């Protein structure tokens, strides 16, 4: 099936590594995951070749993800390679932020537009527990580095775990004085990641009730606002006079298949047209052969197989989020 009229697949999520310096409870099983051998991972040159092909089919936005993309060596150089592709209008990065203080200046100079930083708790002990060893202080330093270097809009991704309800006030307060955009994301059952089911996860409705309670406590009435920085699956709200916003991504309860504009490339060269599907096409051989026609043919095949109908959501994936790129 070709994308329906008006359906614009223009966004590529590009995973540059399956390795990560965190082991988040919702993303990886406790024993971790077996990382791919280095030889199986595409080089930056391979990825650049793929992106050039993808731009010929309408991709204009690339989000670099992982694993943790900043654990891969020389990421700013790769950003500069992508920046040289003139069809790309937006290059963004999803990160846990820990290595941003070290790389933010270089990333900005290389042409990175903006970052999303995962930040699941504002409580140091809970943060450590959820990330299985991560430091809240390090991630907050990453948020500062992103703001200082104008990698904006700076969005903060918070997975809606039950604990999040008790921290809602803290997250709202984060948006008061600075342009931070907190996005609550529904826990997704992808691969074998995480011990929790969606059943005991918090929903958007719970969080909206929490926001209403804050309004009643003197925060003022929050209003829906447009997505900071343009199109996206989140719905955003702003409290009166606040610099930042609160957003919700209902990936499960309110999934946005009908508007899905994305493709995913895994670090080992598999093309995925849906996060929730096991459908993958191996594009690695065509990329290694530098066969542009073949790469374009594979991307076309993936686009034609893409499902936009939320009523026929495909089955569960075999690979977890850290392997796919979230
Ligand atoms: N390491 C980077 C980071 O921490 O943001 C990038 C990779 S991570 C897989 C990308 C995004 O996927 C993060 O925002 C993370 O919160 C989200 N994620 C991972 N597992 C998830 C799950 N089971 N449900 C919802 N979001 C998930």
Task: Describe the protein in words.
- The protein has 326 residues and is of the alpha/beta class.
- Helices cover 31% and strands 17% of the residues.
- A twelve-stranded mixed beta sheet has the order 7-8-9-6-5-4-3-2-1-10-11-12, with helices on one face.
- Helix 1 (44-55) packs across helix 9 and helix 3 (100-110) packs parallel to helix 5 (136-148).
- The chain is globular and about 60 Å long.
- S-adenosylmethionine binds at residues 20, 26-27, 65-66, 68, 94-96, 118, 157, 159, 185, 187-188, 190, 193-194, 321-322, 326.
Summary tags:
binds S-adenosylmethionine; 12 strands; globular; alpha/beta; 10 helices; 12-stranded mixed β-sheet; 326 residues; disordered N terminus
Share of helix, binned: 25-40%
The structure class reads alpha/beta
* Average pLDDT number: 89
Number of distinct beta strands? 12
Overall morphology: globular
Question: Order of strands in the sheet with the most strands?
Answer: 7-8-9-6-5-4-3-2-1-10-11-12
Q: If helices are DSSP runs of H or I spanning 4 or more residues, what is the number of helices?
A: 10
Largest sheet: 12 strands, mixed
Regarding quaternary structure, what we see is single chain
Say which molecules are bound, naming each kind only once.
Answer: S-adenosylmethionine
Distance between the termini: 25 Å
Report low-confidence residues grouped into runs of 5 or more.
1-6
Order of helices and strands, N to C? EHEHEHEHHEHEHEEEEEEHHH
């Amino acid at each position: 099936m070709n994308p329906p009229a008006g359906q614009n697949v223009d966004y590529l999520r590009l995973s540059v590594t399956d390795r990560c310096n965190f082991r988040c409870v919702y993303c990886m099983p406790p024993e971790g995951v077996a990382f791919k051998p280095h030889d199986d991972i595409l080089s930056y040159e391979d990825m650049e070749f793929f992106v050039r092909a993808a731009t010929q089919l309408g991709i204009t936005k690339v989000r670099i993800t992982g694993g943790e993309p900043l654990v891969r060596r020389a990421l700013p150089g790769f950003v500069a390679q992508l920046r040289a592709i003139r069809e790309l209008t937006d290059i963004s990065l999803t990160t846990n932020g820990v290595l941003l203080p070290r790389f933010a200046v270089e990333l900005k100079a290389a042409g990175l537009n903006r970052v999303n930083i995962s930040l699941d708790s504002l409580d140091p002990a809970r943060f450590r527990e959820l990330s299985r060893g991560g430091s809240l202080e390090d991630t907050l330093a990453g948020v500062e580095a992103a703001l200082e270097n104008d990698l904006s809009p700076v969005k903060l991704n918070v997975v809606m775990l039950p604990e999040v309800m008790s921290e809602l006030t803290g997250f709202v307060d984060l948006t008061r004085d600075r342009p931070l955009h907190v996005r609550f994301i529904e826990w997704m059952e992808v691969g074998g990641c995480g011990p929790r089911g969606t059943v005991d996860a918090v929903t958007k409705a719970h969080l909206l009730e929490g926001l209403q309670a804050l309004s009643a406590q003197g925060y003022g009435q929050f209003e829906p606002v447009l997505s900071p920085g343009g199109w996206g699956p989140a719905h955003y709200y702003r409290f009166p006079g606040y610099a930042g916003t609160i957003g919700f991504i209902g990936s499960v309860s309110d999934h946005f298949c009908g508007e899905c504009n994305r493709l995913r490339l895994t670090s080992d060269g598999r093309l995925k047209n849906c996060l929730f599907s096991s459908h993958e096409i191996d594009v690695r051989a065509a990329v290694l052969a530098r066969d542009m026609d073949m790469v374009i043919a594979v991307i076309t095949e993936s686009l034609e197989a893409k499902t936009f109908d939320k009523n026929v959501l495909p089955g569960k994936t075999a690979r977890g989020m850290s392997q796919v790129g979230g």
